[in-house]
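ping. complex inputs:
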Amino acid sequence: QSALSQPPSASGSPGQSVTISCTGTSSDVGDYDFVSWYQQHPGKAPKLIIFEVNKRPSGVPDRFSGSKSGNTASLTVSGLQAEDEAGYYCTSYAGNNIPWVFGGGTKLTVL
Amino acid sequence: EVQLVESGGGLVKPGGSLRLSCAASGFSFSSHSMNWVRQAPGKGLQWVSSISSSRTYIYYADSVKGRFTISRDHAKNSLYLQMNSLRAEDTAVYYCARDAIGVIAPFDYWGQGTLVTVSS
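pong. complex structure:
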């Protein structure tokens, strides 16, 4: 199972919006609405911020939103804040044999 | 409060074995599927293995199949990963992660990880 494709880096100024893409195939992202996004600050454990494409766990600001079109999922961070600077990883359900596949990660820099 | 605490990492020679543990607390451990996810130094996250709440369903990434074994002990509220025939490319921080409730659920809680280094 190949990893999902994410841009290695993204950036934006405080207050701006940035969108991170996550491209898979018709066997994972394109076939299931089970795409999740995780935020990871350096030296810390990942944190779930989006699940089932566009749902936010309790406590996650509504500045974080998710969407999907075909084989590509996207994470949008609106109203960028300094604390949003982190690594972001997408993952998708990929079926019974290899249930989960991750993206390579995107480092978001707040300028 | 949900807590997941990994242990058992360390330095091991290629070909060696190691057993990781994850102690769970603050929730009904027997009701949740559990997972191991790893992260090589400076690299991204990689799913390693999953086990269902009833142990009926067990899955492995191709890269560890036949070498790693996931298990769980409900009496001890613990998750395990037995790692054999270790290779340099297995060097990573290994995270224990809980599935949220649901048939196909995201990883809603993660431990802080334990570092495994495979080197001669």
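Chain B touches chain A through 22 residues (CB under 8 Å).
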